[in-house]
Amino acid sequence: MRYLLTHLDSAWALTLVHLRLSLVPLVLGLMIAVPLGAAVQRTTVLRRLTTVTASIIFTIPSLALFVVLPLIIPTRILDEANVIVALTLYTTALLVRAVPEALDAVPAQVRDAATAVGYRPLTQLVKVELPLAIPILVASLRVVAVTNISMVSVGSVIGIGGLGTWFTEGYQADKSDQIIAGIIAIFVLAVVIDSLILLLGRAITPWVRATRAPRLKLRAAQ
């Protein structure tokens, strides 16, 4: 803990790198997974194919993907783009399975009502189904965000920056306090990001709290 307190400048700089490498893939993966997941939701064959492909991608070890990517895309092994591309693939693989499940959870009567009002499929998806699917998507985003934060730490093994650098430097110099400081910093970062996503999800879904409050009062009365 003392190492962390005496190296706050370094911790802040490494945290910014860690955040960039973790959150950029989160945003990119979400932008890819939502339209892709929505497109395959009602097509059984495409949905199964997408699920299988996503499962295969996620089984590839992150370190191996960091090393192999420079052979596929025109980057150097120490380029941050390798981590961003790899984590974008992992993020997409996780979220593309969650999106159809979240849309499946939308009640059929809600879809029927939207159709009766005159909403076309795309309008219904954007204005009705996706907003109602947000709570499930937020839960998946929280998992992916924490997963990305932990995976970025692996990148330090091949020289990519981030808080994982304290792991490798501490191990090489036999400094247990530096290693512990890295663990604490990454843990705190994961908790903070997870909490922020949770709060953001609650802020953009006020109707969830509005419908939950009467239920809680009813249970309390019983």
What features would you describe in this structure?
With 222 residues, the chain is mainly alpha-helical. The chain has a single domain, classed as Orthogonal Bundle (MetI-like fold), CATH 1.10.3720. Helix content is 84%, strand content 0%. It is globular, with a radius of gyration of 21 Å. The model has no long low-confidence stretch (mean pLDDT 87). It holds the Pfam family BPD_transp_1. Keywords: Membrane, Transmembrane, Transmembrane helix, Transport. It is found in: Cell membrane; Membrane.
Quick take:
With 222 residues, the chain is mostly helical. Helices cover 84% and strands 0% of the residues.
What tags apply to this protein structure?
single chain; 222 residues; mainly alpha; MetI-like fold; 10 helices; globular
> Would you tell me the overall average pLDDT?
87
Query: What is the terminal-to-terminal distance?
Result: 48 Å
What is the CATH class designation? Mainly Alpha
Roughly what fraction of the amino acids lie in strands?
under 5%
* CATH homologous superfamily designation: MetI-like
Question: Uncertain segments of ≥5 residues (pLDDT<50)?
Answer: none
Radius of gyration: 21 Å
Count every helix, treating DSSP H or I runs of 4 or more residues as helices: 10
State the assembly state of the protein chains. Answer: single chain
Order of helices and strands: HHHHHHHHHH
Domain unit count: 1
Class based on secondary structure composition and strand pairing: mainly alpha
- Record field, number of beta strands: 0
CA-based shape: globular
| Helix content, binned percent | over 70%
Membrane topology: Multi-pass membrane protein
Keywords: Membrane, Transmembrane, Transmembrane helix, Transport
Protein name: ABC transporter permease
Subcellular location: Cell membrane; Membrane
